[in-house]
Design goal:
The complex is a heterotrimer of chains A (338), B (313) and C (349).
Chain A: E1 4-15, E2 18-30, E3 35-39, H1 46-53, E4 61-70, E5 73-74, H2 80-86, E6 91-94, H3 98-101, H4 108-119, H5 124-137, H6 143-146, H7 156-168, E7 174-178, H8 186-203, E8 206-211, H9 214-220, E9 223-228, E10 231-237, H10 238-243, H11 248-255, H12 302-306, E11 311-314, E12 317-320, H13 322-337
Parallel strand pairs in A: 3-8, 3-9, 6-7, 7-8
Antiparallel strand pairs in A: 1-2, 1-4, 4-5, 9-10, 10-12, 11-12
Helix pairs in contact in A: 4-5, 5-7, 7-8
Chain B: H1 2-26, H2 28-45, H3 47-50, H4 91-127, H5 129-144, H6 147-162, H7 164-169, H8 171-199, H9 202-209, H10 214-225, H11 227-250, H12 262-270, H13 279-306
Chain C: H1 2-30, H2 33-37, H3 44-53, H4 60-72, H5 86-121, H6 126-140, H7 143-156, H8 168-177, E1 193-196, E2 199-201, H9 206-239, H10 242-249, H11 254-292, H12 297-306, H13 310-338
Antiparallel strand pairs in C: 1-2
Helix pairs in contact in C: 1-13, 5-6, 5-9, 5-11, 5-13, 6-9, 7-9, 7-11, 9-11, 10-11, 11-12, 11-13, 12-13
The chains are: A alpha/beta (338), B mainly alpha (313), C mainly alpha (349).
């Protein structure tokens, strides 16, 4: 049994204009100690996916359907009280911007100790020594001093180290990290990422890494999901997807990486931008931006416009694309003919 | 020229098309408040047509008719629907005229506040430096004394200097000046804040690069973009000005009893509340509350609709 | 800390200087002490001599210097009406006003925090909607009108005959809605307990407290809804912040999220606004004291205006200025203690 299992997760936002579907039919599993990447442009629903795991989506968002099973328990059916025992304890989170994540009026020590005391019956002194130990693990200089400091006295990189320390406080099973390095200076991004990775390995913690950086995902994770407009469009082993992306969108993302460009030429962009969730195109949401669906006369293929693509299995990956499905079908026919 | 004429209306139209009008159509409270407010304004400014008697004309007043109760209480007189005050004036007529005075001072004071405050706010926000520091420190001190306190002190001093008779004669002008001068910091601060926010944006740089003078940039380019916060606080300020006027009049620093506003009617009636004639003070009081409440609710609604922090796409 | 205090002190001195110049200008333009000191019958030559002796012909700055020097020594001149030192008159009226402000502040703090927090946490509950509705009505009723209505209901009493008296529910409704009107609405009462100096307190006897109830409610009636709405708005904004989301993600109890994480941040702007509102509160004491004939500084000030008692007016302004400066400094200090990002050097880090 997988540590975490997400089946047909469906998240909606009840807005004035009507319901907007932020996540549709998201499925994935996570094994103990595994590292999973979730990739996509901003607005694809990556963060919503992360927050819905612990039912932390802000109103007016809500989980409209599907199931999240963690260690055999259905989180989607659990009471707020039950969820609270898991939050920060067995599944902890790292937020995007360390400047905004820590409460400005509470000391670092206070914010660490309260987390320990919420989940364990221990004295303040014990809690403090655990907090100190974790601060040492995240290699913060003079950790003793930090406990009494306030967030504004620390740099962004230090704050993110502290947030990693808080995430590790209670030896969780899973850490969900939502763009943990995006808000940091480029120079320390790699450092923080390496720290997070090594701590996850030494503590055998599973990691869900949400990012738009394909480079980081390819280095850190074993499996990945590519999301587009609230839907997973390709998922499978990271190496396989990076080496041989099937979905035109994934191909576009990889081609857009600066390393893929020829020096002196323009970067390869995916044209257009992600549609807003309340005005999704019909059929495959990606079809207006897809280079492959358009035929010589400029019109898109009818299947892409009319039908939402089903998942097809390609190698160890699952891909939601009509073109890939046809191609695989062709290949199968040819193989049969031979 | 062309840029300014296209930016101003397009912003307004964007509000109307997208959200302001849409929200108004759906909000019952806002509709009701606007209706009540409009009725009061129309009734007040048509007072000479609607009022059965002219309360300023002493010939129509008979002291024998004083303290008559309104129509639902035994002993009322058919000529006076809402009863009469202590001087025998028809309460309905005097309330209509009094509302007119209150509204006149409220609007006048807010226009004056806005003129001073917007000018100072633009100067402080756009020119910065010493002018900014001086104006904002002035605003701080004045605000920390509270606008009502400043108005009371200025009113007291002006009244003592010029004498009661002169003050009473020009009370409307005096009150507009006093309340206008006391409340300008609200506008100045709001405008300054939005100017500082706007100043960082590219279009102001662009205008400067094009060689436009700072005065022109301020009034033609920055001001139109600070209109929505100005509009929102104006509603609240009208309500505040009307309350301030009532308070000053209640303290005897405002409209004289011969030419009363709602505040001086309440003051005049208060002397008779112990003798049981509560209507002389409480009916004008109720009108004042309904007037201020409708403006405040409209202001609340406007703030909810226009506040960019609350309204996200 | 010391740097902060020095900076505050310099600010305070500057504000007091501005106030004293204004106050002196008022006195200089309005008061003619000679007129007050001698009768109409004294010949002009003698008046001129007196004027010269009193230094009234000196340049403005010299006169201001003398005024400031006297003021620093606590000499603000004599009240025309009371025929005694103006500061003495103020000192006699000060305790009544301070007790009224204290009672009203107590009401505001005790009620606005729980109601504001509740209606921020549960913005859609009927109770929150009720409080929001009441508070906007509260803001729209001027203080003096609240006071008058309270007097009518609780001091004079109302006799409701709206419902048919011959039907049992009508009679019951009439009786329930009618009030006795036994609350005192005039002055401080006679059952005051002497504390020290000029200070007789209302707070130590049942009759004293009964006299305090209506004025205190009136004085609190505009600030209370203002603070409820402010606390609600700030709290709702804080609840949207990343750090509150993060606190929830840590699995700590909602009670701790609300009352430690959110409330502490909510109170920062509330404290600032509270400092500004002290001035408004003093202005409202003038109105409240007028309605209830509460013998405090506000009523005294209004009487002084009507009697053109210039030295008393000027002294009142100076004393109120001192009160503002002191309270604002205290509020700044509290703010600095609550908010760790303000180092008490006066410079935000």
């Amino acid at each position: 049994m997988a540590l975490l299992e997400v089946n047909h997760l469906d998240v909606r936002f009840a807005l004035r204009q009507g319901e907007v579907r932020a996540l549709r039919d998201v499925n994935f599993t996570l094994e103990r100690g595994e590292r999973l990447g979730i990739v996509g442009e901003s607005g694809a629903g990556k963060s919503v996916a992360a927050f819905s795991l612990l039912n932390l989506i802000a109103k007016p968002g809500f989980i409209a359907g599907g199931e999240i099973r963690f260690d055999g328990q259905a989180l989607t059916k659990m009471s707020e009280r039950g969820l609270r025992k898991i939050r920060g304890n067995r599944i902890s989170m790292i937020f995007q911007d360390p400047m905004m994540t820590l409460n400005p009026v509470l000391s670092i020590g206070e914010q660490m100790i309260e987390c320990l005391k919420a989940h364990r019956r221990i004295s303040r002194r014990e809690a403090r020594s655990i907090a100190l130990d974790r601060l040492k693990q995240v290699q913060i200089p003079s950790p003793e001093k930090r406990l009494d400091q306030y967030p504004h006295e620390l740099s962004g990189g230090m704050r993110q180290r502290i947030i990693i320390a808080i995430a590790l406080l209670l030896d969780p099973d899973i850490i969900v990290a939502d763009e943990p390095t995006t808000a940091l200076d480029v120079t320390i991004q790699a450092e923080i990422m390496a720290l997070l990775l090594s701590l996850c390995e030494t503590h055998n913690v599973a990691l869900i890494l949400i990012t738009h950086d394909l480079g980081v995902v390819s280095q850190v994770t074993q499996r990945m999901l590519v999301m587009y407009a609230g839907r997973v469009i390709e998922q499978g082993p990271t190496r396989e997807i990076i080496n041989d992306p099937q979905h035109p969108y994934t191909q576009g993302l990889l081609n857009a990486l600066p390393q893929m460009a020829t020096p002196g030429e323009k970067l390869n962009q995916i044209r257009g931008s992600m549609p807003s969730l309340n005005a999704l195109p019909s059929g495959c949401a990606f079809h207006p931006r897809c280079d492959f669906t358009h035929r010589s006369d400029g019109t898109a293929r009818p299947a892409c416009v009319e039908q939402v693509p089903e998942f097809v299995i390609s190698g160890q990956c699952r891909v939601a694309c009509h073109m890939v499905a046809e191609m695989l079908e062709d290949r199968r026919m040819k193989e049969e003919a031979q | 020229m062309s840029t300014s004429t296209t930016t101003t209306p397009s912003r307004w139209e964007r509000f109307r098309d997208s959200y302001l009008w849409y929200s108004f159509k759906r909000d019952r409270t806002a509709q009701l408040c606007l209706a009540v407010f409009a009725c009061l304004v129309v009734a007040a400014f048509c007072a000479p047509l609607l009022a059965p008697t002219d309360p300023y004309d002493l010939r129509h007043i008979d002291i024998l008719d004083s303290e008559l109760p309104p129509f639902w209480i035994d002993g009322f007189d058919e000529r006076y629907t809402l009863g009469t005050d202590a001087q025998g004036r028809d309460l309905w007529s005097i309330i209509l005229y009094g509302t007119r005075v209150s509204l006149l001072i409220g609007f006048g004071a807010v226009i004056l506040q806005a003129l001073i405050g917007v000018t100072f706010g633009l100067m402080a926000g756009y020119l910065g430096g010493r002018i900014d520091a001086f104006l904002m420190r002035l605003a701080d001190i004045q605000l920390s004394f509270s606008t009502l306190m400043v108005a009371i002190v200025v009113g007291a001093v002006v009244k003592s200097t010029l004498g009661s008779a002169f003050y009473s004669e020009y009370a409307v002008v005096m009150l507009i000046l006093i309340i206008g001068l006391a409340e300008w910091p609200q506008y100045a601060r709001t405008v300054r804040a939005s100017v500082l926010a706007e100043r960082g944006k590219e279009y102001v740089d662009a205008a400067r690069v094009m060689g436009l003078r700072s005065k022109r940039i301020m009034f033609r380019h920055v001001l139109p973009n600070t209109l929505s916060p100005i509009f929102v606080i104006s509603t609240v300020q009208i309500a505040n000005a009307i309350i301030s006027e009532a308070a000053l009049s209640f303290l005897g620093l405002g409209m004289p009893e011969t030419h009363p506003s709602l505040g001086s009617l309440i003051k005049a009636g208060f002397d008779y509340i112990q003798s049981g004639s509560w209507w002389i003070t409480l009916i004008p009081g109720a009108v004042l509350v309904v007037l201020v409440l409708s403006i405040n609710l409209l202001g609340d609604w406007l703030r909810d609709v226009m506040n960019p922090r609350l309204y996200k796409g | 800390m010391i740097a902060f205090l020095i900076k505050r002190l310099m600010h305070a001195v500057l504000v007091m200087f501005v106030i004293s110049v204004l106050a002196f200008a008022i006195q200089d333009n309005l008061g003619d002490p000679v007129q007050q000191m001698v009768g109409q019958s004294v010949p002009e030559s003698e008046r001129a001599a007196l004027r010269e002796r009193l230094g009234l012909n000196d340049p403005f700055l010299v006169q201001y210097g003398r005024f400031a020097k006297n003021a620093l020594q606590g000499d603000f001149g004599y009240s025309y009406f009371y025929r005694e030192p103006a500061l003495e008159v103020i000192a006699r009226h000060l305790p009544a006003t301070l007790e009224l402000v204290f009672a009203a502040t107590l009401l505001i703090v005790l009620l606005s925090v729980p109601i504001g927090v509740y209606s921020a946490i549960k913005p859609r509950s009927p109770i929150s909607r009720f409080f929001m509705g009441v508070s906007i009505i509260g803001i729209s009723i001027p203080v003096f009108l609240t006071a008058i209505v309270l007097i009518q209901i609780f001091a004079i009493g109302i006799n409701v005959t709206l419902f048919p008296q011959d039907i049992s529910w009508g009679a019951w409704l009439n009786a329930t809605l009618s009030t006795q009107g036994s609350m005192p609405s005039f002055g401080r009462g006679h059952d005051l307990v002497h504390v020290v100096g000029h200070w007789d307190t209302n707070l130590a006897s049942w009759d004293g407290i009964r006299h305090l109830v209506l004025p205190a409610i009136s004085l609190a009636s505009i600030m209370l809804p203002l603070f409820i709405r402010l606390i609600r708005a700030e709290m709702m904004e804080v609840m949207q912040s990343e750090y509150v989301k993060y606190a929830r993600a840590k699995g700590i109890s909602m009670r701790r999220v609300y009352f430690v994480h959110a409330l502490k941040n909510t109170m920062l702007p509330v404290i600032t606004v509270g400092g500004v509102q002290i001035g408004t509160m003093v202005a409202y004491t003038i109105l409240t004291e007028t309605v209830f004939q509460w013998p405090g500084m506000g009523l005294m000030f209004l009487d002084a205006i009507n009697r053109a008692d210039i030295p008393l007016i000027v002294t009142y302004l100076m004393v109120v200025g001192v009160i503002f400066v002191v309270t604002n400094t205290v509020v700044d200090l509290i703010y600095g203690l609550v908010n760790p990002t303000v180092k008490l050097t006066g410079k935000p880090a």
